[in-house]
Amino acid sequence: MALINENFLKLKAGYLFPEIARRVKAFTDENPAAAQRLIRCGIGDVTEALPEAVRGAMHKAVDEMGDRGTFKGYGPEQGYEFLRKAIAEHDFQARGMTIQADEVFISDGSKCDTGNILDIFGRGNKIAITDPVYPVYVDTNVMNGNTGEADESGAYAGLTYLKCTPANGFVPEIPVERLDLVYLCYPNNPTGAVATREQLEAWVAYALKNDTIILYDAAYEAFIRDPKLPRSIFEIDGARDCAMEFRSFSKNGGFTGMRCAFVVIPKTLMGRTTAGARQPVHPLWSRRHSTKFNGASYIVQKGAEALYSDEGRSQVKALVEHYMGNAALLVKACRDAGLAVYGGENAPYVWVQCPAGISSWQMFDKMLNEANVVITPGSGFGSAGEGYFRISAFNSRANVEEVCKRIKALAK
Ligand SMILES: *Cc1c(COP(=O)(O)O)cnc(C)c1O
Questions:
Q1: At 368, which CATH number?
Q2: How many angstroms separate the alpha carbon of residue 90 from the centre of ligand 1?
Q3: DSSP-assigned states of every residue in 334-384
Q4: Which end of the chain has fewer beta carbons closer than 10 Å to its terminal beta carbon, N or C?
Q5: 111 Cα nearest atom in ligand 1
């Protein structure tokens, strides 16, 4: 019989979203009437239609595929030049960063990128994640054999957990020990927190001093509205030598079902061999990407490119304003209900403290049973998330207004 990768057996069985789905199903099976009233604010998935600029560009691309003269087969693994150039120019160069098109790798999603990136790193690295955290970073490290077993609280041996609390604004303090890899995600899922320029400068200084690589997930960059906040780690001097950045069109362009994202790996970013030789990581990812990936679809890349047109940019802005309008309503409703609320100002997630003595899952059940609203229990994102819940602002305005009413009613 074939040996399996036993690291998979270390994974905690009750992965967050299946457990939510199980409880929602049990509730709706028992309460078919209440099921009609159910509003889902659980999973962070967009709800609004694809921007018109994207649809137009894709229709055109489909027609190109229908003509022998303009038909396209396999594209470049790293992504089409037109999209890599648009990204480098609009997202980075126009904002004073020196990222070049050939430092951008197009993919079919940041979930895959943040997981697959471990292919190019060796064993024995000291790896840190925040707590609470986007579960993908943790589980992919478990699968790769970078951890031991999980303890009672769900924390894996061998991983360093950086606690995020109201006291540090949900941005971890600079650690005293040295680390090889640190995952940071700002604007943050699940807490909705943002990192200030000073905080990112401190992290970059730490990384440069300790030869640490920062894996920076900026999937929610488009939701930053405060112009003083950095939208990219590369706005910080020195970040080219210590960071890579993951970006996605999922949340800004509504591409969760379309699948298109990218990672920026500066050519100056270095790792080391066991023998101690410095080695750039860009060629390693290039090789990995070309070997295991055959490129995102031409049609989808044409759609993504259209997000950078004048029309596309104003349509993205309208989408962001819609979701952030929702977030503002949710923040206000929770505050009016007497709850302590974080996030929701530069991120589409509202992070709410449960009333005293109520756990995350108890709050989940209460919201489900009494308000017929599905939220995400904070403890599902790590033990530091216990006592909190996340409300997603990805919804229709009508649903959000109804959720706000129910939160207020629940507080009475
Ligand atoms: C949604 C999300 C992404 C984007 O994932 P895709 O695979 O590109 O859809 C990346 N990171 C975080 C933290 C997210 O919440």
A1: 3.90.1150.10
A2: 20
A3: HHHTT--EEE-SSSSEEEEEPPTT--HHHHHHHIIIII-EE-EEGGGG-GG
A4: N
A5: 7
Angle between helices 310-336 and 52-65 (to 10 degrees): 140
User: Strand 261-264 and strand 270-272: pairing?
Assistant: unpaired
Nearest to 247 by CA among 51, 74, 54, 84: 84
Please give the single-letter amino acid code of residue 272.
Answer: R
Closest CA to 92 of 104, 105, 81: 104
pLDDT in tens, 335-373: 999 999 999 999 999 999 999 999 999 999 999 999 999
Residue where a domain terminates, one of 275, 309, 343: 309
Instruction: Give the CA radius of gyration of the chain.
Output: 22
- The answer to whether the CB of 189 is under 6 A from ligand 1 is yes
The protein residue whose alpha carbon is closest to atom 11 in ligand 1 is 219
Q: What is the pLDDT of residue 14?
A: 61
Q: Which atom of ligand 1 is nearest to the CA of 134?
A: 13
Token look-up 């924390």 returns 155
Q: What is the DSSP string of 144-164?
A: TT-S--B-TTSPBTTEEEEE-
* CATH number assigned to the domain comprising residue 244: 3.40.640.10
Residue 326 lies in domain:
14-48+311-411
- Give me 399's structure tokens: 């649903």
Percent of the chain with pLDDT over 70: 99
Per-residue pLDDT tens over the stretch 155-184: 999 999 999 999 999 999 999 999 999 999
Q: Distance between CA atoms of 100 and 110, rounded to whole angstroms?
A: 19
Ligand 1 mean position to 283 CA, how many Å?
24
Residues 393 and 386: their CA atoms lie apart, in Å, by 21
Judged against a pLDDT cut of 70, whether residue 80 lies above it is answered with yes
Cα 44 to middle of ligand 1, angstroms: 9
Task: Please work out whether the CB of residue 236 comes within 6 Å of at least one atom of ligand 1.
Answer: no
* CA 111 to centroid of ligand 1, rounded, Å: 5
344, two tokens: 């929701």
Question: How do residues 18-76 score in pLDDT, each as one tens digit?
Answer: 889 999 999 999 999 888 999 999 878 999 999 999 999 999 999 999 999 999 999 99
Nearest CA to ligand 1 atom 4: 110
User: Is residue 203 situated within a structural domain?
Assistant: yes
Q: Does residue 4 lie within any of the structural domains?
A: no
Q: Determine whether the shortest distance from the Cβ of 216 to ligand 1 is under 6 A.
A: no
C-alpha 252 to ligand 1 mean position (Å): 11
110 CA → ligand 1 middle, Å: 5
